[in-house]
Amino acid sequence: MNRRVDLRLAAVVAACLLGGCSLAPTYRTPNLPPMPSSYKEGDTAWKVATPADEFSRGDWWAIYNDGALNRLESRLDADNPSLAAALARYDTARAFESQLRSGLFPSLNFSADPLRARQSDNRPLRGSNEPNEYNSDTTGVQANYDLDLWGRIRNEVSQGHALAQASKADLASAKLSLEARLAEDYVRLRGYDIQVGILQDTLNAYQRALELTENRHSGGVASGLDVSRAQTQLHDAQAQVMDVTAQRALTEHAIASLIGVPASSFSIPPVREQLTVPVTPVGVPSTLLERRPDIAAAERRVYAANAGIGIARAAFFPDLSLSGAYGFQNTGFGNLLSIGNRFWALGPLATLNLFDAGLRRAQLRQAHAEFAEASADYRQVVLDAFREVEDDLVLLQDLGAEAQQEDQAFAAAQQTLKIATNRYREGIVNYLEVVVAQTAALSAQQDAETIRTRRLQASVDLVRAMGGGWRRDTAGIDAASTAQASESKHSGMR
Predict the structure, then answer these.
(1) Are 393 and 46 in contact, with CB atoms under 8 Å apart?
(2) Burial class (CB in 10 A: 0-12, 13-18, 19+), 111
(3) What distance in Å separates the CA atoms of residue 370 and residue 17, rounded to the nearest whole number?
(4) Which strand ranges, in their side-by-side order, compose the sheet holding 107-118?
(5) How many domains does the chain have?
(6) Which of 128, 198, 258, 365 has the maximal Cβ count within 10 Å?
(7) DSSP result, 117-176
(8) 293-314 vs 152-218: helix crossing angle, rounded to 10
(9) What is the three-class DSSP state of 334?
(10) In which band, very low, low, confident or very high, does the pLDDT at 92 lie, cut at 50, 70 and 90?
């Protein structure tokens, strides 16, 4: 008869378990504002798609075809402390998810309690023949299983899994952001190298101009004013060299910090070779909503908040669990594990909160508010993402046109300087005309290099804004080989 009761109880428990439900609302991705068919500042179209931020982005920086940058990026991935902290946060989230998932399974505990005790002489209802001191040896196993009829535990697991996914996306976002920051700093440093080279060439030209004016002054052809003007130009250029050198040193220190080494033991040799600005492909469908890890993280947090509503709702219903115990107990004499010393217990436990002064309703309101906050954050992240892409596209377009104009301005300034110098040698004009031409030529050349550096930085930021490059499909095209094969079209790594 007892076995039949046990079987019936097990059948009832199984039926309850299979009939368990979830009280979380049906999840839907938050609605976004109406989106245009393409980016405003370019011909690139976009599409809304399932987040696919787990696709590898690869070595997207290879589109710049610079070996030193490639080596620095690989060191960043291995040694950056901020990236290591983000990885630790992801590991923490995964461990927390595993803790929550354990609630889906029964718990089983073993205990052993050899006890020597004394009871009070005045213990209520104490028998007259009971000893003052006695032994109590107990050993056994206890099992407990929450049937989770209302999906509280399952929603906790879903929430923990979504938060772990968000943390993984945060890790990818941190990695992409740090890689982009390193690339931007490297581009800035190479820009300073070229600026120093420009100023060094200018110093040589100014030194020759000073010698010319001194010779003409010695011959009585030029005035002392011409000499002082030439000296002023020379010393001003020398000051600019020191300023750019200091800015380069600061940038080099920033790169050292990114790759996790002390600034005092790190250096990058100067290189005057210019990096090539990659051309943004035209008409490639944007995978912005698929690729941006920060968008994926925001969406996963919305899902987690939705599961939180189910957890809060489940608190209004009874919690049913099944517990059991089996073991042996005696008073310290004889064989503890004999059949007569055994005990067992099996049965369900139901709990229902009858009054909590509005606690559960407040928790439910909090869960709904957290969902609304996460949804608003998701929409804002998406809007910011499109704004960033538009910003970088317009920067690349306008800076490209500006660079052409500045190159023409520099060419004209060089011609003007050549004419002014020849006229000064012939004694037609004073040295002031040469000074004006020298200043204009240097300024135009520096502005041209500054614009080129800004274009490179904007291209790096566009790669980051697009989620780590631009690819037509999941198969992708190797950015490095594409960059080497053609400078007119590039496909970034996923």
Answers:
(1) no
(2) exposed
(3) 30
(4) 107-118, 133-146, 319-330, 342-351
(5) 1
(6) 258
(7) EE--TT-TT--TT--SEEEEEEEEEEEEEE--TTSHHHHHHHHHHHHHHHHHHHHHHHHH
(8) 150
(9) coil
(10) very high
* Range 357-384 average pLDDT: 93
- Give the tens place of pLDDT for each residue, 253-291: 999 999 999 999 899 999 988 888 887 665 444 555 667
Q: Residues 468, 290: contact at Cβ < 8 Å?
A: no
* 22, part of any domain: yes
What CA–CA distance (Å, rounded) separates 241 from 194?
11
Cα separation of 166 and 93, whole Å?
Answer: 9
Does the pLDDT of residue 188 top 60, yes or no?
yes
The tokens describing 229, both together, are 């003007």
Coil, strand or helix: which one is 21? coil
Query: Is there a contact between 379 and 299 (Cβ–Cβ < 8 Å)?
Result: no
In a domain, 474, yes or no: yes
d(CA 187, CA 189): 5
What is this structure's pTM? 0.79
| Residue 494 domain-assigned (yes or no) | no
Tell me the longest C-alpha to C-alpha distance in the chain. 134
pLDDT of residue 311 exceeding 90, the answer is: yes
Paired tokens of 428: 């037609």
53, burial (CB in 10 Å: exposed 0-12, middle 13-18, buried 19+): buried
HSE, CB side, 13 Å, CA atoms: give it for residue 203. Answer: 14
Angle between helices 152-218 and 224-258 (to 10 degrees): 160
Residue 443 lies in domain? 2-116+133-485
Q: What's 260's domain CATH number?
A: 1.20.1600.10
